Amino acid sequence: MHRGRSVETMMEMPNGTVDLEVANGVATITLNRPESLNSMNNHLMDDIRTAIETAEADESVGVVVLTGNGRGFCSGADLNTVGGPDADHGDDSGSASVTDGMDDHFNPTMRAIKNCAVPTVARINGVAAGGGLGLALACDIAVAADSAFFVATFGPKLGIVPDLGSTWSLPQKVGVARARAMAMLGERITARQAQDWGLIYSAVADDELDVEVERVTAILRPTSGEAMQRIRSSLESASQRSFSEQLDVERDHQAVLIPMNMIEGAAAFLEKRAPRFR
């Protein structure tokens, strides 16, 4: 599916916690609660999901960028909703409220990011802690400024397990030993360390962050959304299959993609031009 260029638009999501900008085929979703380092609550998660759905419905959009306003990417859950003076401290109702929030707001949003119809890029401009770490890792490609850092605060600070997909993403990206240590120790991981471990794709100087994001999105923007989704699913499920079984998975994907895309890709290569995927 070819997605071209669009007239620039800017809109605020219904709850006013997220902004969506669409320009030149790139949809940028900006978390906009800078006073709390873009901490997560139900409204924020609903707004992210609305922004994802809006971007997917725009045929001009070829890539989605997720970032934060201000000094942070996302500091995790807004603890005022569970530990502040207005929180519900009942034995059962409090836990039910939290899990309902996960079922109704948080987890549907994470699934929307993970299953986005076009590639997703995390532009990590500051701290990604707790659920913010899960948010960053749910994107296909993560690029961080050198000043950014990552913290799995769940275990040592809150006495809970990592969530928002972190227990799935961490061992896939950094291995079980490092994932376990990150979750149990809650130590700060620098952007360069995250790059070295394979937690993110790249770490760059702060003043080069936008340049790197623009470089990555320029590659992804004109790609085939169908191919990108199939690449994503093939890689993430590969560990569940044998080598021989994975060969069959690749064959089945190619049966769809070759007639859809490869003829145009080969023609573009021979004609020394960019491919125009439908």
Summarize the structure in words:
There is one protein chain. The chain is α/β, with parallel strands linked by helices and 278 residues long. Helix content is 47%, strand content 17%. It is built from ten helices and eleven strands. β1 and β2 (18-23) form a beta hairpin. It is globular, with a radius of gyration of 19 Å. Residues 1-6 and 85-93 have low confidence and may be disordered.
Structure summary:
By secondary structure, this protein is an alpha/beta fold. Helix content is 47%, strand content 17%. The chain folds into two domains: 9-220, Alpha-Beta Complex (2-enoyl-CoA Hydratase, Chain A, domain 1), CATH 3.90.226; 225-270, Lyase 2-enoyl-coa Hydratase, Chain  A, domain 2.
Question: What key phrases describe this protein's structure?
Answer:
278 residues; 2-enoyl-CoA Hydratase, Chain A, domain 1; 2 domains; four-stranded mixed beta sheet; disordered N terminus
**Residue fraction in strands:** 15-25%
Euclidean distance between termini CA atoms: 4 Å
Rg on CA atoms, Å: 19 Å
Query: Which superfamily, in CATH terms, is the homologous superfamily of the largest domain?
Result: 2-enoyl-CoA Hydratase, Chain A, domain 1
Helix and strand element order: EEEHEEHEEHEEHHHEHEHHH
Overall 3D geometry? globular
Detail the poorly predicted runs: 1-6, 85-93
Q: Averaging pLDDT over every residue, what do you get?
A: 92
CATH topology of the largest domain: 2-enoyl-CoA Hydratase, Chain A, domain 1
Number of domains: 2
Biggest sheet character: 7 strands, mixed
Task: Say how many strands there are.
Answer: 11
For the record, the CATH class of the largest domain is Alpha Beta
Q: Structural class given helices, strands, pairing?
A: alpha/beta
Strand order of the largest sheet: 1-2-3-4-6-8-11
